[in-house]
Write a structure and sequence with these properties.
The structure holds 3 protein chains of 3 kinds. By secondary structure, chain A is mainly alpha-helical. Chain A has helices spanning 10-39, 57-64, 66-96, 102-112, 114-117, 120-130, 137-145, 158-186, 190-198, 203-231, 235-241, 252-261, 266-293. Chain A has 13 helices and no strands. In chain A, helix 12 (252-261) runs antiparallel to helix 13. Chain B is of the alpha+beta class. The two termini of chain B are 37 Å apart. The model of chain B has no long low-confidence stretch (mean pLDDT 89). Chain C has 2 domains: 1-40, no CATH class; 80-291, MetI-like (MetI-like fold), CATH 1.10.3720. Helices cover 76% and strands 0% of the residues of chain C. Chain C has 14 helices and no strands. Classes of the chains: A mainly alpha, B alpha+beta, C mainly alpha. The interface between A and C is large, with 107 and 98 residues.
């Protein structure tokens, strides 16, 4: 009996949770446990010998693996960088369109949201096309504007590839922040705005001191969600560069995928995954705690 | 038509005691009001009668049937929620008919019942509208109608008028009472507004922090409150209190503050002699304070002096808030008196009008 | 209420001038934003109507000079089973949306109505689920599906998709169910209705819009997923669109940008339709969830 529940049908409600819990236990719970086990084994799908327990050999290999560290660096840059810029752009858009009302306003907002409706793989190929050195739209525009002298090979130069991929990500992610922050902005109580007007708050004062505090929570929570999603982002990167050139756009996902399904080193791949999960957990806990303190 | 009996009813949520041992007898066709501040447990008690909450201990009886384990649907009750709880996706007609359809009545029977009730509450014109198209007062009537149409043994109403504006509230109070007279059910009504309680209830149950303090008619509660809480909760404006020292001697018992002496009635003296408490709290109802001029003061039975802290003009009368030695009092006087703040006033009190309360327990000293 | 209105200075003449300047800047910024959002999409559609030659030209043309439908015709009449890709994706995503919503809703109801002592932990558990590196589950899931003989099948993909679809659906549906006041259910209980009928006749009609929104979101997330089809499906004919696009864009097709953009456009259409259909309730679902915290 659930003491004090407003629907004293305890066993009934417990039964309702069962299908979900059961399904998740099989589809997520079991694989997680299995991944933990795999991470301690020398499991290679291709090799003749069966899996052997090797303790923390995979983890030691991981820490000594320069590509792992590069992948980690790339992932951090990719995730935090894209989220920061997208959030900023989304906020700017939300502030710009705040006063747009009526059908025109709704149309403008809907159009600004379009990138969100485009599948990730499509975005990847589209931008790949636009980033082409010869024949790509981006080079054409930049050449015409005089910003560059010669066509740049965006996706084939190590130092340019990651920023280029990040730009694609930003294009895709900004609408999410735009939508969320627009809604949050609409929720700022009118009385607060009106008192600020009476107090003669300037444009920037209004934004930074009055509106932003109301958006803080929405911003932080959605940023956390997007950072996590970006860590998982496989489609955009794989379809654009497969992690290349070299390892310059290899993120953790890409690396794990290659280890698992090109080298078939399931054990090692699982170890990377476990470390990744622990890192994210630690980050999320610290983040949420910081959030709660303020 | 049902007598409701709560015997030693207790309710706990995890470790929190929401209702401490409650005993209550409700007669058939009574209009009982549960009144108290937020968190007093009145809604919990109502929901226990309804069956929406289970008792942690004790028994609940309807007539001669123990209903502890009887399901909500089988208790023959109807409930009006504070937020109405109307089905948003159904018309007013369907909202009212929904419960009846369960009983396998013929469509004609249902129709006539719904229409009759709608007529009683003046909502016939709204039968085909949806709740979101109605005003607060209209929704409230529909909620009432839904309860009435079930023809239950017990009506339960959970602060149904709280969300209405003052004017509408007064109007609806009268309507609810009119409806209650027309049907033959018992009604249990929850409110936090003591004025509402006093005007509506046959008997009133004053609750605070999960305990029943007193059960009685409006007159009983007003004239003979059983403790300081009931005394201060019931009555507008609230009773004023001040602390007195007790002097017991062979000549009798007297109460005194730094600046006043009071004689007490024989009954009060007897009650005070039953303890050795040195101090007692005295309460006086505002309308019992009679302002006197300084000249008349010497001739009056018992007088008290105080400094005016505030004056509230209410049209025909005014409320005077006075600071006295040992406490504060409020007086309800006619507007003929011209009273200024921070001036001194004198008033006379009759011993009969003193309400005595124990300083430690708050219980009435009688 | 907007920033420009709020910064009204004291001098009327100055006010009018600077206000108009501000409005011009704002309009310009919005125009720029619209351009930024829509240009790539236009580029994709425009290219899809270009001949292979024109699409690959070194000097990209702003609109197709030799507009042609051949790319689209080639999709369905060409050597690749594009129609299969499309229907595979459609069926898989619809199935996942359905399954996720059906299984998640009872659990969401239970979480919403019952006064579990475990409620905060469950909220965190759901956050952890969203944080999961899906790729970590890849190897174990692969082996799981292998043993269950579900590899290379629609059912197997649906199972995989529920790893992210289910937690998300529970989270979303819970916020929709929270919005239904519990008094309504209590009134129905008093009216004499048994539990299951209350759910069916009172609760279900009220959460229907929420069900549709959640299903659409799950549909969209599944449509976007590349890594599971890439890993779990081995026969090309059974592939989904994202994976098919990646796998087939090799060899002879590597320079057929016109054809690729046509495929991309067709791949985008269902998402675009779904997106605009639920646009308004999307905002509600997002803000109530994100603003309410993890």
């Amino acid at each position: 009996m659930i003491a004090g529940s407003r629907s004293p049908a305890g066993p009934w409600l417990d039964a309702m949770v069962l299908p979900t819990v059961g399904m998740l236990a099989i589809v997520v719970g079991y694989p997680i446990v299995y991944a933990l086990v795999l991470s301690t084994e020398n499991y290679n799908l291709l090799s003749a010998e069966s899996a052997r327990f090797v303790g923390d050999a995979n983890y030691r290999k991981l820490f000594a693996d320069p590509i792992f560290w590069q992948a980690l660096r790339n992932t951090a840059l990719y995730a935090f960088g894209s989220v920061a810029i997208s959030a900023l752009l989304g906020l700017t858009l939300a502030l710009l369109t705040e006063h747009l009302l009526g059908r025109r306003g709704r149309l403008a907002r809907a159009l600004l949201l379009t990138p969100w409706a485009v599948p990730f793989v499509v975005i990847a190929f589209l931008f790949r096309y636009m980033y082409l050195q010869n024949g790509g739209a981006i080079n054409a525009v930049l050449l015409a504007a005089g910003a560059i002298d010669a066509p740049v090979s965006w996706l084939n130069v190590s130092s340019l590839a990651l920023p280029a991929v990040m730009l694609t990500n930003i294009w895709a992610m900004t609408p999410f922040f735009f939508l969320l922050l627009s809604a949050a902005l609409a929720g700022v109580p009118n009385e607060v705005i009106e008192s600020a007007r009476i107090d003669r708050a300037g444009t920037f004062g209004m934004i930074f001191r009055i509106k932003l505090p109301f958006l803080r929570n929405a911003l932080l929570v959605s940023s956390l969600l997007m950072i996590i999603a970006n860590f998982n982002d496989f489609a955009k990167i794989w379809a654009m560069t497969q992690g290349g050139p070299g390892y310059s756009t290899t993120t953790l996902v890409v690396y794990v995928y290659r280890q698992a399904f090109e080298n078939f080193a399931f054990g090692y791949a699982s170890a990377i995954g476990v470390i990744w999960l622990l890192l994210l957990l630690a980050f999320a806990v610290a983040y949420l705690r910081a959030l709660r303190r303020n | 038509m049902a007598r409701i009996s709560l015997r030693k009813v207790e309710k706990r949520y995890d470790d929190v005691l929401a209702l401490a041992e409650c005993n209550l007898e409700i007669d058939d066709h009574d209009f009982i009001v549960l009144v108290g501040p937020s968190g007093s447990g009145k809604t919990t008690l109502l929901r226990i009668i309804a069956g929406l909450e289970q008792v942690s201990a004790g028994e609940l009886w309807f007539d001669d049937v123990r209903v502890n384990d009887i399901d909500v649907a089988d208790r023959d009750i109807a409930m009006v929620f504070q937020n109405y709880g109307l089905y948003p996706h159904m018309s007013v007609y369907d909202n009212m008919a929904f419960g009846l359809r369960r009983r396998k009545l013929s469509r004609n029977d249902i129709d006539s019942k719904v229409r009759r009730t709608a007529k009683l509450l003046n909502i016939e014109a709204l039968l085909h509208r949806r709740p979101r198209q109605l005003s607060g007062g209209q929704r409230q009537r529909v909620a009432l109608g839904r309860a009435i149409v079930r023809d239950p043994a017990v009506f339960l109403l959970d602060e149904p008028l709280s969300n209405l504006d003052a004017h509408l509230r007064v109007q609806m109070r009268a309507e609810i009472l009119k409806v209650h007279r027309a049907v033959t059910a018992t009604a249990v009504y929850v409110t936090h507004d003591q004025v509402e309680a006093l005007t509506m209830g046959d008997r009133i149950v004053v609750m605070n922090e999960g305990r029943i303090h007193q059960v009685g008619t409006p007159g009983e509660l007003y004239d003979a409150p059983v403790d300081k809480f009931v005394a201060s909760f019931i009555g507008t404006p609230a009773m004023g209190f001040f602390t007195c020292r007790v002097q017991r001697s062979a000549a009798g018992v007297e109460l005194f503050t730094a600046s006043a002496r009071f004689r007490v009635t024989d009954a009060q003296a007897r009650a005070l002699n039953q303890s050795t408490a040195e101090e007692v709290i005295v309460g006086i109802r505002p309308e019992r304070l009679v302002l006197v001029s300084e000249a008349d003061a010497s001739r009056a039975q018992t007088t008290m002096r105080g400094i005016v802290a505030a004056v509230e003009m209410l049209g025909a009368e005014q409320y005077v808030h006075v600071t006295v030695d040992g406490g504060a009092l409020t007086g309800k006087v006619s507007r003929d008196h011209h009273i200024k703040v921070d001036t001194s006033v004198t008033f006379s009190i009759s011993s009969r009008d003193l309400h005595l309360f124990d300083r430690e327990t708050g219980m009435a000293v009688r | 209420m907007n920033a420009a209105q709020a910064s009204t200075p004291t001098h009327p003449r100055v006010a009018r001038g600077s206000r108009r300047a501000g409005e011009i800047v704002r309009a310009g910024a919005i125009g720029l934003a619209l351009l930024w959002s829509l240009a790539p999409v236009y580029w994709m559609v425009a290219t899809s109507f270009k001949t292979e030659l024109e699409a690959a030209s070194l000097k990209p043309t702003l609109w197709p000079h030799d507009a042609t439908f051949s790319n689209y015709v080639g999709l369905f009449a060409g050597s690749l089973p594009f129609l299969s890709f499309f229907t595979n994706t459609l069926l898989t995503c619809l199935a996942t949306a359905l399954v996720a919503v059906v299984i998640a809703t009872p659990a969401a109801y239970a979480l919403s109505r019952a006064r579990f002592r475990l409620r905060p932990p469950i909220g965190y558990a759901i956050l952890v689920f969203r944080m999961l590196p899906l790729v970590v589950l890849l190897a174990p899931l692969y082996l799981l599906l292998l043993h269950a003989r579900l590899l290379d099948s629609l059912a197997g993909l649906v199972v995989g998709f529920t790893t992210f679809g289910l937690p998300f659906a529970v989270w979303m549906m819970k916020s929709f169910i929270d919005a239904v006041p519990i008094e309504i259910e209590e009134a129905a209980r008093i009216d004499g209705y048994p539990r299951w009928q209350i759910l069916l006749r009172v609760v279900a009609p009220l959460i229907l819009p929420g069900l549709v929104t959640t299903a659409t979101f799950v549909f969209m997330e599944s449509w976007n997923n590349l890594i599971y089809p890439l890993t779990f499906v081995t026969t090309l004919e059974k592939q989904t669109l994202p994976a098919a696009l990646v796998l087939t864009f090799t060899g002879q097709f590597k320079t057929d940008w016109g054809g690729m953009m046509a495929a991309a456009t067709v791949t985008t259409l269902p998402l675009l339709i779904a997106f605009f259909a639920v646009q308004r309730s999307m905002v509600r679902g997002l803000t109530s969830g994100a603003l309410a915290g993890a």
